[in-house]
Design brief:
This protein is α/β, with parallel strands linked by helices. About 40% of the residues lie in helices and about 20% in strands.
């Protein structure tokens, strides 16, 4: 029997602004698509501390196979520990990312996730000055492409 842990964080991560309830819904839907039933929901809210609550839940369930479901890879941008520390602890667990539909395990998988995140963090945000409607946004988008 596996322990399925849904990891929910602050609503603002990366480009997303998804409330905790929405993240929980997304993770539950993803779990049901993969024939999983979530055992625990761990909220790393305002007092985010590098997924320490997740670590303690994993340690309590060390005899069972643990599967972690994050809403997005972008939740990892909030880490204040090194990537190496994160990878060393989580390399033995199945880790799923609901929005990206990614799942995997191991050092290579996690390193690839961090390489992808590095690419996202280098991107510039779209300037939304003087844009008051979706029509204005569409015009700006169309001009950039054509």
């Amino acid at each position: 029997m596996s322990t399925i842990i849904s990891v929910v964080t602050n609503s603002k991560f990366g480009i997303w602004n998804i409330p905790m309830r929405g993240q929980n819904f997304i993770n539950n839907h993803y779990a049901s698509l993969n024939n999983y039933k979530i055992s625990f929901v761990i909220t790393e809210g305002i007092l985010f501390n590098n997924f320490n609550l997740v670590k303690s839940a994993i340690k309590k369930n060390h005899k069972k196979k643990v599967i972690l479901i994050f809403c997005s890879t972008l939740q990892l941008l909030e880490l204040k520990i090194t990537k190496k520390e994160f990878i060393n602890f989580y390399k033995n667990f199945d880790i799923h990312f609901s929005l990206e539909l990614k799942k995997g395990k191991g050092i290579k998988y996690l390193e690839d996730i961090f390489v992808e995140l590095k690419g996202y963090s280098k991107r510039k945000n779209i300037e939304l000055n003087n844009i008051n409607s979706y029509k204005d946004l569409y015009k700006k988008f169309k001009n950039k492409i054509i």
